[in-house]
Amino acid sequence: MELDSYMQGCTSSPETGELDAAMVKAMQEFTAVQQSGENKYAKWKYETYTDLVTATVPYMLKHGVRIAFYPCHRGGREAMVGKIKHSTSGQWESATV
After folding, report:
1. Are 32 and 48 within 8 A, CB to CB?
2. Does 84 have pLDDT greater than 80?
3. How big is the CA angle at 80 (ends 79 and 82), to the nearest 5 degrees?
4. Who contacts 38 (Cβ-Cβ below 8 Å, separation ≥6)?
């Protein structure tokens, strides 16, 4: 595992080239994100989590990329770890927020 010294809390497998290539292929197929959420008070629309998943995840899965989020504790505080993994190579990247 490598710790990214430029972005605290970001880690990855030693190699990420196959994951990166699969993500590029998936991203080329992403569709426009709908804005189904609506703030009626301020009169503006926004992308919901479901909107984002619908526009991206099917293409990620098609190219062997999955994304998951895990709640955790870090330094006595609540945190969330997001992890992207390539099913064929096992390569991954994660970040803690």
Report:
1. no
2. yes
3. 155
4. 44, 45, 46
Give residue 88's identity as a one-letter amino acid code: T
What pLDDT is recorded for position 8? Answer: 66
pTM for the whole structure: 0.79
pLDDT of residue 7: 56
Backbone torsion region of residue 8, taken as left when φ is above 0, otherwise alpha when ψ lies between -120 and 50, otherwise beta: beta
Measure the CA–CA gap between 58 and 60, rounded to whole angstroms: 6
Residues 6+ apart with CB under 8 A from 47: 33, 34, 35, 36, 37
Question: d(Cα 24, Cα 64) in Å, to the nearest integer?
Answer: 12
